[in-house]
UniProtKB/TrEMBL annotation:
Keywords: Cell membrane, Membrane, Transmembrane, Transmembrane helix. This is YitT family protein. It comes from the Bacteria. Its main location: membrane. It comes from Lederbergia citrea. It is found in: Cell membrane. The keyword Cell membrane applies. It is a multi-pass membrane protein.
């Protein structure tokens, strides 16, 4: 029971950090936090689909793969983390005003919190949804660095979106991904000696 409660406590905290990074630091500058948002923009541009539906479609598609590859428990935790993140964004975006000193300071703060949040979610057997799912699948199969795989996938998508959005936003998004990917790798590879729940246990169970 203690392990169960700790798992969901860390999941809640990780999702909260992720939502905080998006709502207070990244979204005010229109910086996408990952490739799923980029895919939504591309589907909206190519197929004239609504952005909200496109984002849902992108996440639903990858969750179907996650259910087969990682199992129902991992998928449930991922859906829960997405719900907590979305709720955090909705609350903080409307209730917590934050003075923005400089865009690069916000990118740094947002990238750190985002990397910490996603890294923590992965350590407790979940993810933030979106492009983290295929990145985990590729990293697991190829034994590659998780953060670097995420960076590579998102980089391709951001470069494609540069044809339809301001190139400055694409540059900001790439900087954000570079910082957060390194933090995710650090958290994923770090050896926690006293907290057994924080181990790389996202594989199918």
């Amino acid at each position: 029971m203690k392990k169960f409660l700790l798992t969901y406590l860390y999941l809640l905290f990780g999702a909260f950090l992720q939502g905080t990074s998006m709502s207070l630091f990244l979204f005010p500058h229109s910086i996408p936090s990952g490739g799923a948002a980029g895919l939504a923009l591309l589907m909206n541009h190519w197929f004239d689909l609504p952005l909200g539906f496109s984002l849902w479609l992108a996440n639903a598609f990858f969750l179907l793969f996650a259910l087969k590859y990682f199992g129902s428990t991992w998928t449930f935790r991922t859906i829960l983390s997405v719900a907590i993140t979305s709720t955090t964004i909705s609350i903080l975006a409307s209730q917590v005003p934050l003075p923005h000193v400089h865009v690069f300071i916000d990118i740094l703060g947002g990238s750190i919190l985002f990397g910490l949040g996603v890294g923590l979610l992965i350590r407790v057997g979940a993810s933030s949804g979106g492009m983290v799912i295929p990145a985990l699948m590729i990293a697991s199969y190829k034994k590659w660095s998780l953060g670097k795989v995420m960076m590579g996938i998102n980089l391709v998508i951001f470069l494609l979106t540069s044809f339809i959005i301001d190139y400055k936003i694409v540059v900001y998004a790439i900087i954000c991904q570079f910082i957060s990917a390194n933090i995710i790798d650090f958290i994923y590879e770090y050896k926690f000696q006293k907290v057994s729940i924080l181990s790389p246990n996202w594989r199918r169970r």
